[in-house]
Design goal:
This protein has 378 residues and is of the alpha/beta class. The protein has helices at residues 2-27, 29-49, 68-78, 92-100, 114-119, 135-156, 182-211, 214-218, 225-253, 263-286, 291-307, 320-325, 330-344, 348-377; strands at residues 57-63, 83-86, 106-110, 124-131, 167-174. A 5-stranded mixed β-sheet has the order 2-1-3-4-5, with helices on both faces. The longest helix has 30 residues, at 182-211. It is elongated and about 95 Å long. The termini are far apart.
Length: 378
């Protein structure tokens, strides 16, 4: 009988402790949201954003022939809904510039003798220029164009036993002739690694002040909140700048990624991204009561930010809603800057909108984190 009572008491105490823990979890609204709301949001986001299909590629066409046959050829390219026909100017030079500037994903130039060659039974050549920075999208775009050309050839060469090709595309890839996927992924990985490290390290450093009680000791020192923040941010940013040099060295030496643009411009935008990550981590720490909440909140914030930035998957593969939502993602602008500087050699005069957006987000988040930190010191 005594052993039976001990057995009941043992599991009764476990039940009591379990009910106590459950009540604590249910009272913690932030933890409850992270446990229930975060998986729902992330499953929805990843299911829609991680889409291997490539659609809505921006296609520009310069049709020198201006004939019914050439217009039919252009229509065969866009009828798959993979390409969206965009304004591309009136010359081959205009369309080449738009592809190189990133305004178009693909450009097609139809020669003036296109109609005449097809009607005489000769092969008409069409120039196709693809942006090879995103190797996966460029490869898929080349496949769709080749498929459309084959369908067009079949339409215009039926009835002959060994007909010549009506159209033969001459495809060239800008910036990534070998279509190496790592040229797309490595700059994106640099961006996400710097963001994760700067956010989590700064958040942990700020929360640690609360946990060990040194935040109260800072109140006794003859310094203001601005001095404390500067003293925290500057050493951390210096250490993270070393991370930038290491990342750049690895990408160039090990992966063979070229740095075609200015090194100083690359370092400048990387420094802006570091300050943005530090400010994000400080803001997360200011809204968190302990390291557990800070870590969970950082995990919840960083994963959607990375996924919507285009660092892992191209923005073109996302549904329209998520592409529009990514405008509010600061990492998107840093990823764009890094790829343009490293792979295209783009100067500041052409990427200044992305740099301005990155600066704006950094200033806003630094202001929020500084304001919250001052309130904690008062």
């Amino acid at each position: 009988m005594k052993a039976l009572l001990t057995y009941k008491d043992f599991f009764g105490q476990i039940r009591a402790l379990g009910r106590k823990e459950l009540r604590q979890i249910l009272r913690d609204r932030q933890l409850l949201f992270l446990l229930i709301g975060m998986p729902i949001m992330q499953i929805t986001l990843y299911s829609l954003a991680l889409n291997p299909e490539v659609k809505h590629l921006r296609l520009g066409v310069v049709d020198y022939a201006q004939s019914l046959v050439s217009r039919n050829f252009v229509a065969s390219l866009v009828e798959t809904q993979v390409f969206d026909l965009m304004r591309a100017g009136n010359s081959q030079k205009d369309i080449s510039k738009k592809v190189r500037d990133g305004d178009l994903d693909a450009g097609v130039v139809v020669a003036p003798d296109f109609d005449r060659k097809i009607k005489s039974g000769r092969t008409a050549r069409v120039q196709v220029l693809l942006d090879g920075v995103d190797a996966n999208s460029a490869y898929i775009a080349a496949g769709y164009i080749s498929r459309a050309v084959r369908a067009f050839n079949y339409q215009y060469t039926t009835g002959s036993q060994s007909p010549p090709l009506a159209v033969q595309p001459q495809i060239s890839f800008a910036y990534n002739p070998g279509l190496e996927a790592k040229w797309f992924f490595v700059p994106g990985v640099i961006a996400l690694v710097l963001t994760l490290v700067s956010t989590m390290v700064s958040s942990a450093a700020m929360v640690r002040e609360k946990d060990i009680g040194t935040l109260e000791q800072l109140l006794m020192t003859p310094v203001n909140s601005a001095q404390i923040l500067i003293a925290k941010f500057v050493p951390l940013s210096m250490v993270l700048m070393v991370n930038i040099f290491v990342s750049l060295f690895v990408s160039i030496v090990i992966f063979g990624i070229p740095l075609r643009g200015s090194l100083w411009l690359f370092l400048f935008v990387s420094f802006l991204n570091i300050m943005l990550g530090i400010a994000t981590g400080a803001a997360l720490a200011a809204f968190s009561a302990n390291q557990r909440q800070s870590l969970l909140t950082s995990f919840f914030v960083n994963l959607p930010v990375i996924q919507l930035s285009g660092a892992i998957t191209p923005l073109e593969s996302m549904p329209m809603f998520w592409r529009q939502l990514s405008v509010f993602d600061p990492l998107r602008y840093y990823v764009s800057c890094v790829r343009n500087i490293m792979l295209k050699g783009t100067p500041l005069s052409e990427i200044w909108p992305d740099v301005a957006a990155l600066t704006f987000f950094a200033v806003v988040l630094l202001s929020i984190s500084a304001s919250r930190f001052r309130k904690q010191l008062t």
